[in-house]
Amino acid sequence: MSHILIVEDDRDIAELIRHYVVKAGHTAEVLASGTQALPRVRARRPDLLVLDLMLPGLHGLEICQALRRDPATVDLPIIVVTARAEESDRVAGLELGADDYLTKPFSPKELVARIGALLRRASRGGTVGDGRTTYEGIAIDREQHVVKDNGREVVLTAKEFLLLEFFIQHRGRVLSRDRLLSDVWGYQYTGGTRTVDVHVRRLREKIPLLAEALVTVKQFGYKLADPPAGDDEG
């Protein structure tokens, strides 16, 4: 059973989300103010955060940014829900570390499906060998949830971690954005593929090697180039 924190100032929407989350077998807690969110998360870290953007006290984007700067919450799964449908707002949320984005009005069942998919991906343990995957100087330790680039620890969100792991596991193959959404996000995404592009850009910024090794395949998706012969990979 996972504990879901819902930060939403619209009482009806908050109760609707809470109802469906509990019905799906999780526990849920609702906060109506952005000011309450950060202290509550730090006092009792939830398994996932459902976060509205337009909140009294503290904007959702500020909350998201603060959580991603804190090592204790850098990998906390976050789903943003908001009435603001403009692409710039969606991208801003993703750039600040949100793992997913839903625009109001949305289907509660779809939200629950995305919550379930994100929880499964975030909690997935290592199942191959010793739980480590390598690519040139990049090393992923699934059990410790640690990524190192030539010995330097790289702080990634839960979704960035899983996306990087998926690219390495499928190195040398061209992967469509739809395939990445289906296999990494864990559902058939209907809100556009910009989500993938934002996460790929963040990976390239955090791990310089990927700026060249992770190639954009125009109008299709991405490909992580095969490493030089002799590279030790998991």
Describe this structure in words.
By secondary structure, the chain is α/β, with parallel strands linked by helices. It has two domains: 3-123, Rossmann fold; 132-224, Arc Repressor Mutant, subunit A (Orthogonal Bundle), CATH 1.10.10. Helix content is 41%, strand content 21%. The protein has helices spanning 11-23, 34-43, 60-69, 87-95, 108-123, 158-169, 177-185, 194-206, 210-213; strands spanning 3-7, 27-31, 48-52, 78-82, 100-103, 132-135, 138-141, 146-149, 152-154, 174-176, 214-217, 221-224. The strands form three sheets. It has a five-stranded parallel sheet with strand order 2-1-3-4-5, with helices on both faces. Strands 6-7-8-9 form a four-stranded antiparallel sheet, covered by helices on one side. It has a three-stranded antiparallel sheet with strand order 10-12-11. Helix 4 links the parallel strand 4 (78-82) and strand 5. Helix 1 (11-23) packs across helix 5 and helix 6 (158-169) crosses helix 7. The longest helix has 16 residues, at 108-123.
> How would a crystallographer describe the biggest sheet?
5 strands, parallel
| Poorly predicted residue ranges | 125-130, 229-234
CATH architecture level-2 label of the largest domain: 3-Layer(aba) Sandwich
Q: Give the termini distance in whole angstroms.
A: 32 Å
Rg value: 18 Å
Question: Shape from CA axes?
Answer: globular
Average pLDDT level: 85
CATH topology of the largest domain: Rossmann fold
Structural class: alpha/beta
Write down the domain tally: 2
Strand tally is: 12
Task: Report the top-level CATH class of the largest domain.
Answer: Alpha Beta
Considering the protein shown, what is the CATH homologous superfamily of the largest domain? Response regulator
Read across the widest sheet, the strand sequence of neighbours is 2-1-3-4-5
Total number of helices: 9
Q: Which strand-content bin applies to the residues?
A: 15-25%
Q: Give the fraction of residues assigned to helices.
A: 40-55%
Topology as a string of helices (H) and strands (E) = EHEHEHEHEHEEEEHEHHHEE
